[in-house]
Amino acid sequence: MIERLITDLVRSRLADYPAVGLVGPRQAGKTTLARSLSAVYFDLEQPSERLRLDVQWDALIAQRKVIVLDEAQAWPEMFPRLRGAIDADRKRVGRFLLLGSVSPVLMQQVSESLAGRLGMIELAPLLGAELPKIPWAERWLRGGFPDGGVLGGGRFPQWQTDYLTVLTQRDLPVWGLPAKPAVTDRLLRMTAAVHGQIWNASQVGQSLGLTYHTVNSYVDFLEGAFLLRRLPPWLPNLGKRLVRSPRVYWRDSGLLHALLGLRDAGELLHQPWVGASWEGFVIGQVVEWLTARGRPVEPHYFRTSDGYEVDLVFKLGRHLWAVEVKLTSSPAQADFARFSAAADMIEADRRVLVAQVSETVFNGKSGVASLPGLLAVLAEAIG
After folding, report:
1. Which of 122, 147, 178 is the last residue of a domain?
2. Would you state the pLDDT for residue 104?
3. Within this chain, do residues 301 and 272 fall inside the same structural domain, yes or no?
4. Are residues 133 and 115 in the same domain?
């Protein structure tokens, strides 16, 4: 089994909380990770498993093993029972590990029943840092889902296409997305087409025959289902006019590439959107790697109306980090100079230009790095 970076964080939270919620997209590896921590497992989407849990409940809560409840949002009636068991012995920790595929539904149940009793963790699909024997280019091409081809085999991009079909036709409607599957499919393709761009809900809404309010509500849902990531703008108090709309990225590069019709690695570098794809991949790897290390950040971007920009801005401890992403093996001095000027505007005291370089050069405050080189710099920064 692949060792997930987040495993130590899950164990740490189980040592601190009566219950821990592990959320993330379907097929990201939540069940595999949970079953490596405990053999007491129930899939709450299955009626037979619900019955088995109900019959064994009193004996289960009396024992000292972690009880894993998969797809917890599928049986909301369980949450008051969990609250009762936890409140009957508030000093006991590490009792329940709840797995969920959609954060809005699960968080609603948590807010109503388990507030203050549960620690929440988000698990992404496999990260490049978790696959040291697989080239980063392969991870970028196929995405991180374990069954999606990144571990070998010829399942890309058919697996991704089938995955999105099931989500569109079955899971998203069941979870509460009010759009018809055909509308959802079109919306997914349109968000893929504007991946990494400034979000314009009115423009997308016109194409779909929907109001921008409706489009934004659908995107909220897709973000909560771990498909999309919106980066809000970083808005310092400057004299310059700033771009104030968010950017939208697909969280998994394999799903993005399947939606955009990519078939193999030879096609990737010839696509007009390849730079935006690489940018989104780097942003996701950085944000999700920090989350797995127990240092989640709130990612932003920065852009002025006259074109000065930083692709990724985040606070880490007392430092403000600025990261610019370039799909080149030889970034020009002018690239770094313009990036540095934008970083000066937001007073970023840590700045890195990420490119396809073979050697990372970082002086403690600024430099040029490969993606794994940036992760090494961040690892040193967080200790």
Report:
1. 122
2. 60
3. no
4. no
